[in-house]
Write a structure and sequence with these properties.
The complex is a heterodimer of chains A (97) and B (420). Chain A contains two helices and six strands. Chain A has helices at 33-42, 82-96; strands spanning 2-5, 9-12, 17-21, 50-56, 64-70, 76-81. In chain A, the strands form two sheets. In chain A, strands 3-4-5-6 form a four-stranded antiparallel sheet. In chain A, strands 1-2 form a two-stranded antiparallel sheet. Chain A is globular, with a radius of gyration of 15 Å. Chain A starts with a strand and ends with a helix. Chain B is of the alpha/beta class and 420 residues long. Chain B has two domains: 25-82 and 186-255 and 347-403, FAD/NAD(P)-binding domain (3-Layer(bba) Sandwich); 118-181 and 257-345, D-Amino Acid Oxidase, Chain A, domain 2 (2-Layer Sandwich). In chain B, the strands form three sheets. In chain B, strands 1, 2, 8, 9, 10, 11, 17 and 18 form an eight-stranded mixed sheet that branches. Chain B has an eight-stranded mixed sheet with strand order 5-6-4-13-14-15-12-16. In chain B, helix 2 runs parallel beside helix 6. Chain B is globular and about 65 Å long. Classes of the chains: A alpha+beta (97), B alpha/beta (420). Chain A binds chain B through residues 1, 12-14, 17-18, 20-21, 38-39, 41-44, 46-48, 51, 53, 71-74, and chain B through 242, 244-245, 253-258, 302-307, 311-313, 316-317, 346, 402-403, 415, 417-418.
Chain lengths: 97, 420
């Protein structure tokens, strides 16, 4: 498995470390924060199939990446910088308001 | 009924004279009945052990085990066969020690040769801090009546003179030895429990994959399988590796991620290593099979996966660990390597508990340590299903412990399954 880092190009797996399910950290001020943080911390996605996950390019550019990968085949269909993904999500949230 | 059904020196002798014609199959190829008192999903070691103890100790014989493939096709036939009870935390120690005691009596109990070999498990330490941590672990074990010996460098050298004692970076300072630990023939564990359960009336239904659960007013009434619907008053899940997928069919989200653990076997060589040795500065553990192959492994790959194969960085890491510990294996060729899917729980410890669905019980989250737990897991799960309350030594393995903060985190890694 090699990950195509948007900043560094295609690199070996051992340059990256893994955080798992690429969900957004809940809002600590929300009324259901306790349940939301429990789910965030312990009930992470464990799908058999395409999954969005966070990888950190520790031995490279130090960027956090959102990688879309099929957990049945290890095939990677998309790699984006986490910053880009977060900004896009903010934009969507902004339009919704 | 076959002429020879019980293994003994007499039946072996008799069948030797009669051309081995009197043996029957070790278990029947059962077809599903319309309903059972208990259906166990998963015909691996834990599922079969559960069915065996349900029948043997709790008197429940109207039981079926449904297995999507064939008996022993999952992790029970794919692990590195090590058994030990060298744990540190209160929630774990009594459970794993009960498992160790069950291993010690397993062959007589099952009348099946599982090749239980208490050849000793030696965990090496390479620094003062690690020695202190191992001394603490050994003391915790001894306080629970479990054997543990802290060895110095010379004592280790007398056991394994050919390890690399001259490594500048990771000098071997000594080791923590559990002499009662060792290895067990993994396939025989599955076959022995299957045979034992079958003899007590349990139906073992192979090639039946569960595709859904049927509920009535929040209570389980049976399982949908590829061989049709099977009714059940109680259903127990023992499908580690695929727990999240199967539990999702019952609307349950688990604190588990599925990861791959790789294992390796070398070509057969002459007897070299008569126990189990682990390298404390990396992650490498090794024993030698009776066929002569070195059986070894290391860390999980560290990312979610359901593919039963790993990647090369971990292969390299494991082999580097092996070379650091025992440079003389450098010219030995690898025979094969493979990967199995582990239920990695969020604290590195298992779950044996009721679920919010009445009549549905869960057993999983074994991380990469499920094999050694097989007998105790089966017994405790059987107890839970039969009595609807946890067995004394498995009380800590609750499903809700992550919410209430009662984690059993042997490694102190927090909720990062890939670090346990």
């Amino acid at each position: 498995m090699r990950i195509n880092c948007p900043h560094c190009g295609e690199r070996s797996l051992d340059e990256f470390s893994y955080l798992g399910d690429a969900v957004v950290r809940p809002d600590p001020a929300s009324p259901n924060a306790q349940d939301a943080f429990y789910a965030y911390g312990y009930e992470r996605a464990n799908v058999a199939g395409p999954m969005q996950e966070l990888w950190y390019h520790a031995a490279g550019c130090h960027a956090w990446l959102v990688v879309t990968r099929d957990t049945r085949t290890h095939e990677i269909s998309e790699v984006k910088s986490a910053q880009e993904v977060a900004l896009a999500r903010q934009k969507v949230a902004g339009t919704a308001q | 009924m076959p002429r020879s059904d019980r293994y003994s020196i007499f039946s072996v002798f008799l069948e030797g004279l009669r051309g081995q014609t009197g043996w029957g199959p070790a278990w029947r190829k059962a077809s599903p009945k319309p309903s059972y008192d208990v259906v166990i999903v998963g015909g691996g070691g834990h599922g079969l052990a559960t069915a065996y103890y349900l029948a043997k100790r709790y008197g429940l014989t109207n039981v079926a085990v449904v297995e999507k493939g064939w008996i022993g096709s999952g992790n029970v036939g794919r692990n590195t066969t090590i058994v030990r009870s060298n744990y540190l935390l209160p929630g774990n120690i009594p459970f794993y020690e009960m498992s160790m005691k069950l291993w010690e009596g397993l062959e007589q109990d099952l009348n099946y040769n599982a090749m239980v070999s208490q050849r000793g498990v030696l965990n090496l330490y390479h620094s003062d801090a690690q020695r202190d941590a191992y001394a603490r672990r050994g003391n915790a074990m001894r306080l629970h009546g479990i054997d543990a010996e802290l060895l110095d460098r010379e004592a280790v050298r007398s056991m394994y003179p050919w390890l690399n004692y001259d490594s500048a970076r990771f000098p071997i300072q000594g080791g923590l030895l559990q002499r009662r630990g060792g290895t067990v023939r993994h396939d025989a564990v599955a076959w022995g429990y299957a045979r034992g359960a079958d003899r007590l009336g349990v139906d073992i239904i192979e090639n039946a994959e569960v595709t859904g659960f049927r509920l009535d007013k929040g209570k389980i009434t049976g399982v949908e399988t590829t061989r049709g619907f099977i009714g059940a008053n109680k259903v127990g899940l023992a499908v580690a590796g695929n727990s999240s997928r199967v539990a999702a069919m019952a609307g349950l989200t688990l604190p588990i991620e599925s990861h791959v653990l790789q294992a390796f076997v070398s070509e057969g060589i002459k007897p070299l290593i008569d126990g189990v040795v682990t390298f404390g500065a990396g992650h490498f553990y090794v024993s030698q099979s009776d066929k002569g192959g070195l059986v070894f492994g290391g860390d999980i790959d560290g990312y979610n996966t359901y593919a039963q194969r790993g990647n090369l960085p971990v292969v390299e890491d494991v082999l580097e660990g092996g070379m650091a510990l025992m440079p003389r294996i450098g010219r030995v060729r690898l025979l094969r390597s493979w990967g199995g899917i582990m239920d990695m729980s969020m604290d590195g410890s298992p779950i044996i508990d009721r679920t919010p669905t009445e009549g549905l019980y869960f057993n999983g989250g074994w991380c990469y340590g499920g094999f050694k737990a097989t007998p105790a897991s089966g017994l405790c799960f059987a107890h839970l299903i039969a009595r609807n309350e946890p067995h004394e030594v498995a009380r800590a393995y609750r499903l809700d412990r992550f919410r209430t903060g009662h984690m059993i985190d042997e490694k102190g890694m927090g909720n990062q399954p890939n670090l346990h």
